[in-house]
Amino acid sequence: MKILLIEDEEALRDSIITYFTEEGNICETAEDYTSALTKINLYNYDCVVLDLTLPDGDGMEILRNLKNLHKNDGVLIISARHSLDDKLSGLNLGADDYLVKPFHLSELKARVTAIVRRKSFDGNNLIVFREISIDGLAMKTMVNQNTVNLTKKEYDLLIYFIANQNKVITKSALAEHLWGDEIDLSDHFDFIYTHIKNLRKKLVEAGCGDYIKSMYGVGYKFGA
Amino acid sequence: MKLARKYNRVNLVTSLIILVLSGAVYYFAIHYILTNKLDNDLKIEEEEIVASALKYDKLPLPSDFKDQKVTYSELKPGDSTERYFANTVYNNPDEKETEPGRSLVTTIRAGGKDYSVTITKSSLEAEDLIRLIFLITLGVIIVLLVTLAVINRFVLSNLWRPFYETLKQLKAFNLADKNDFTLQHTQIDEFLELDQSVISMSRRVRQDYKELKSFTDNASHEMMTPLAVINSKLDTLIQTEALSDRQGELIEDVYLAVNRLTRLNQSLLLLAKIENNLIKDEENVILDTLITQKLRQFNELLAASNIHLIQKMEPQRLYMSKYLADIMLNNLISNAIRHNKPNGEIKVLLHSGKLSVVNTGVEKALNSQRAFERFYKDASSEGTGLGLAITSQICNLYNFKLDYHYQGEQHEFSITF
């Protein structure tokens, strides 16, 4: 997928690009308002990751411009402002999602992937990873054409893992993704373990390879 | 006591004392003057009688003039020959009444004999005069006091009106409000000065407050970007292949610390926002449904610590921000779970306008004075120490009453709507 990252903080920009480009995605960057406007006018992207606070302009203006151009680019806002107003006005202006800084790169990746999948799905919203195929509309998981019954949390976990395949994902990122950041689970990471154990068991029993690896102290990695 | 009343009281009491004193002085002075005049009249009469006795060597006839009577009596040897004035009674022959009178008793020698002469004059007119003067004085006192009271009541309260207006505004003064002081229309220098001082003070205070607030807000915002950088760098770091277990543990600790710092920062931002009343999306919140949803979210946490949940709820609607209602419930319920003990119990009760969250836990009451203060937490707590402060701030915003009780080894937090 082709992504434009509009972010003025160089260190953050670098981390995001590194995380995204490794899989052969095309990831372009813009570090200020002017260059961002030029890029969205010239090219089309699957998803624009937009920081609202830019040194020379308001990120919302870029969003407005994008919508005035009638482009079909997906937009994910990343902002340090945890404000309901910003979130609502961003979504009303046509942004697809809103992520508050600081965030986990895996969360960003999962959300961007979801936006791109939604934007580009052509009748069948199908996610395929080797022998696993997931119907995103019916929320049905199949392994080698056999249905696997997953709970909502296990399903969410699997989607998250596939979006971040071959990456190490931290326990806190998983916890935040599954339970939301309102509930502070920092002292209760055992839950994640239980859910992952169940998911792994169900997949393996259905004849799927064991793709979930535990990384000591850090988290989990999903990959062949 | 109000200033006007105090002033009134002092004013009236002193006026009364002065008027009564002056009335008394007046009375005695006039009494003295009139008695003096009567005595003079009596002396003239005496002189006439003495002159007549000298001339004819016999007593004049005891003649009765109007309001005057002269009597003689022969003195026996040894009787006092002292000359004196006395207050006596005067028998008015016309009206057959006794009236107050004044007499002069003196001795005269006539025809070789000593006689005692008593000249009595009616002092009724003088007494009448004194009474009249007394009544007039009393009337003046009453009129004066009434006038003073009326003036004090109406004029003073009118004069002080700008002061009370300013006071009212001061009482209603709220730092977070935008409305400014209005200048009072008054010609009184003191009140004008007071008004101006109050206005300039409120501006200064507001300015300071605004700077402080925006400092918290800006500082927290500015911290979010470096936190985002740390987080993203850690996420990048863990992708490197050869991480030893020891390194993994170290990184996990860093993650936890960053996570805590982020939460702390978000809580501070939220507090600043609630204080500045920046969260405006009020709507009808169906509290019982929201609580049920929340409890479902916490289900796994409850099950993990084997905590028994008892819930008893009546329908309850609140007009408030759903976002804040969410945070309020989150804080109460997660506290009840976090500070519980294994195999403990949580009761969530919602009835007749009161929500109580009761939990078992450490067998010692919290300091109820300080529990709602920022950064108050016991040493073992993993939280930010801001959860209850935020809850209390939300309750303040909507005028709910947040209470803490410790009874029968159970901690109870209750909100009365």
UniProtKB/TrEMBL annotation, chain A:
<keyword id="KW-0238">DNA-binding</keyword>
<keyword id="KW-0805">Transcription regulation</keyword>
<feature type="DNA-binding region" description="OmpR/PhoB-type">
    <location>
        <begin position="124"/>
        <end position="224"/>
    </location>
</feature>
<dbReference type="GO" id="GO:0032993">
    <property type="term" value="C:protein-DNA complex"/>
</dbReference>
<dbReference type="Pfam" id="PF00486">
    <property type="entry name" value="Trans_reg_C"/>
</dbReference>
<feature type="domain" description="OmpR/PhoB-type">
    <location>
        <begin position="124"/>
        <end position="224"/>
    </location>
</feature>
<dbReference type="InterPro" id="IPR039420">
    <property type="entry name" value="WalR-like"/>
</dbReference>
<dbReference type="GO" id="GO:0000156">
    <property type="term" value="F:phosphorelay response regulator activity"/>
</dbReference>
<feature type="modified residue" description="4-aspartylphosphate">
    <location>
        <position position="51"/>
    </location>
</feature>
<dbReference type="InterPro" id="IPR001789">
    <property type="entry name" value="Sig_transdc_resp-reg_receiver"/>
</dbReference>
<dbReference type="GO" id="GO:0005829">
    <property type="term" value="C:cytosol"/>
</dbReference>
<keyword id="KW-0597">Phosphoprotein</keyword>
<dbReference type="InterPro" id="IPR011006">
    <property type="entry name" value="CheY-like_superfamily"/>
</dbReference>
<dbReference type="InterPro" id="IPR036388">
    <property type="entry name" value="WH-like_DNA-bd_sf"/>
</dbReference>
<dbReference type="Pfam" id="PF00072">
    <property type="entry name" value="Response_reg"/>
</dbReference>
<dbReference type="InterPro" id="IPR016032">
    <property type="entry name" value="Sig_transdc_resp-reg_C-effctor"/>
</dbReference>
<keyword id="KW-0804">Transcription</keyword>
<dbReference type="GO" id="GO:0000976">
    <property type="term" value="F:transcription cis-regulatory region binding"/>
</dbReference>
<keyword id="KW-0902">Two-component regulatory system</keyword>
<feature type="domain" description="Response regulatory">
    <location>
        <begin position="2"/>
        <end position="116"/>
    </location>
</feature>
<protein>
    <submittedName>
        <fullName>DNA-binding response OmpR family regulator</fullName>
    </submittedName>
</protein>
<dbReference type="GO" id="GO:0006355">
    <property type="term" value="P:regulation of DNA-templated transcription"/>
</dbReference>
UniProtKB/TrEMBL annotation, chain B:
<dbReference type="InterPro" id="IPR003594">
    <property type="entry name" value="HATPase_dom"/>
</dbReference>
<feature type="transmembrane region" description="Helical">
    <location>
        <begin position="12"/>
        <end position="34"/>
    </location>
</feature>
<keyword id="KW-0812">Transmembrane</keyword>
<dbReference type="Pfam" id="PF02518">
    <property type="entry name" value="HATPase_c"/>
</dbReference>
<protein>
    <recommendedName>
        <fullName>histidine kinase</fullName>
        <ecNumber>2.7.13.3</ecNumber>
    </recommendedName>
</protein>
<dbReference type="InterPro" id="IPR005467">
    <property type="entry name" value="His_kinase_dom"/>
</dbReference>
<dbReference type="InterPro" id="IPR036890">
    <property type="entry name" value="HATPase_C_sf"/>
</dbReference>
<keyword id="KW-0472">Membrane</keyword>
<dbReference type="InterPro" id="IPR050428">
    <property type="entry name" value="TCS_sensor_his_kinase"/>
</dbReference>
<keyword id="KW-0597">Phosphoprotein</keyword>
<feature type="domain" description="Histidine kinase">
    <location>
        <begin position="218"/>
        <end position="417"/>
    </location>
</feature>
<keyword id="KW-0808">Transferase</keyword>
<feature type="transmembrane region" description="Helical">
    <location>
        <begin position="129"/>
        <end position="151"/>
    </location>
</feature>
<dbReference type="GO" id="GO:0000155">
    <property type="term" value="F:phosphorelay sensor kinase activity"/>
</dbReference>
<keyword id="KW-0418">Kinase</keyword>
<keyword id="KW-1133">Transmembrane helix</keyword>
<dbReference type="InterPro" id="IPR003661">
    <property type="entry name" value="HisK_dim/P_dom"/>
</dbReference>
<dbReference type="GO" id="GO:0005886">
    <property type="term" value="C:plasma membrane"/>
</dbReference>
<dbReference type="InterPro" id="IPR036097">
    <property type="entry name" value="HisK_dim/P_sf"/>
</dbReference>
<dbReference type="Pfam" id="PF00512">
    <property type="entry name" value="HisKA"/>
</dbReference>
